[in-house]
Amino acid sequence: MSLNLDPRQRAMLEAMGVTLWQPQAAEAPTERVAANNKSTPENAGTHASHQKPVARNEQKFTAPPPSQASPTAPAPSPAIDLTQVATLDWTTLQTTVASCQACGLCQGRKATVFGTGDGQARWLVVGDAPSEADDAQGQPFSDAPNQLTGQLLDNMLKAVGLARHGTGEQAVFITHALKCRPPANRNPQADEIAQCEPYLRRQVALIQPHIILALGRVAAQSLLQATLPEVATLPLGKLRGQVHQYQGVPVVVSYPPAYLLRAPHDKAKAWADLCLAMDVVR
After folding, report:
1. Is the pTM above the cut of 0.85?
2. 178 CB burial (10 A radius; 0-12, 13-18, 19+)
3. Is 252 helix (H, G, I), strand (E, B) or coil?
4. What are the sequence ranges of the domains in the chain?
5. Fold that domain 7-14+71-281 belongs to in CATH
6. In this structure, are strands 123-127 and 244-246 parallel, antiparallel, or unpaired?
7. Strands in 143-220 per DSSP E
8. pLDDT tens readout for residues 208-253
9. Tens digit of pLDDT for each residue in 73-107?
C-alpha cells in the first residue's frame, strides 16, 4: 500500500522506533521495509482470498469493568459448553467470562481481562495472555503509567489512525486469547488455550471485525489451530507476511509489543504487518 504520512503519523512511527526515509517513486512498501530493516526478509506466503463479514451488529457494545477476585480461590469446574457460549449476547458473555472456572487459571487471578474498546470496531487486536499489570487493571495491554507494552501498542495503533478509545474509523477492540493471567507469566498450556477459545470465537462473532491482528504465538495458535493444525510448532516469523482466516475473518500475525521492546530491530517488520492489515481492510 502507499501511505501519505502526515506529521502526526510520522511522529508515532518515530515513537515506535521505525526510521522513516524517502523512497523512490517506484518502490513498493515491502521493499521500503526490507531496505529500512537491512535484514534478510522472512519467507512470506501469498495473500489468501478473504470475504468481508456480513452485516454488522446494530447494538453498541462497551467494554466491561474489571472483574474482582473472590476472597477464596474457586476450584475449576467442567469444561466450557461450546454450544451455550455460541448463543450468548455481549453482556452475558462478559459476565460468563468474569465468573469462569473452567481451568486452573481462575485460582490465581485478580481479575479476568475481557477486552477494551469499541465492540463494533473494524479492527480486533488479540494478544497472548494478560500480564501482571493487565491482571491488576482488568485491561489488556494496560495503559497505566510506566506500562511500556501498552504505550508501544498505543503508538503502533496511532501510526495507522487507530486509538484504544477511538470511535468510528479510529475504533479498535483489544483483547487477549486468554482471559486470565498464567502464574508468573508462564507460557499458557494447550488446554488453557482451548478452554478460552470459545470466548474469543464468540467475541469475533459479535464484533464482526474486518481484520484481526494477532500479536504473538498464543494468539496465533488460538486463532489458527483449526485451519493450520501445525501452528503450535511454527515460529512466529513463518506465520507473518500472509493473510490467514478465522471464522471467515482475515487474520494478520505480528510480534507482541513485549517482544518488540526486547528486539527493537524487528519494529520495521511489525510496521510491515500493520501495512498488510491496512491493505486487507481497504
Report:
1. no
2. buried
3. strand
4. 7-14+71-281
5. Uracil-DNA Glycosylase, subunit E (3.40.470)
6. unpaired
7. 172-176, 211-215
8. 999 999 999 999 999 999 999 999 999 999 999 999 999 999 999 9
9. 444 445 566 678 999 999 999 999 999 988 888 88
